[in-house]
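Input chain follows. Return structure tokens only.
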Amino acid sequence: MQTLDTYRDSHAELRQMIDDLRALLAPELLRIRPNARTAHQLLCDFGQRVRAHLAEEDRSLYPGLLIHEDPRAKSIAWGFISGEKPLRQAFSAYHKRWLKDCDFEFCETFLAQTHEILEMVSARIDREEQVLLPKLVEAGILQEAAAGR
């Protein structure tokens, strides 16, 4: 069974990647080719991590919520499932446009879209922390790791 700590650790890892990217994605830093390569690799790693996080939720969290007897749990699950579609679509379009060809020439449009994606993921993490995870604990679908000790 996944624990609350598992998801909090995943969120912490994603937040750290977002912070690192925000610090690195400055035009003056990206003019230095090794920085641009580092930013590109970090963005690729971030993309994989976001996709893995969403897939884990699809596998482990939502099925239990969707069959839960509490209608509020079902409602929250549907809200998060439908709420992540724009994030997935935006990230897919972003990845196709900016990351697939390994082009290290990062223009203003790229930076604007990258910051937009980072903000979307950050907002999603905040909503999961403030709404989804507490509901999962309340519904008995997730538990604190320490609770089993």
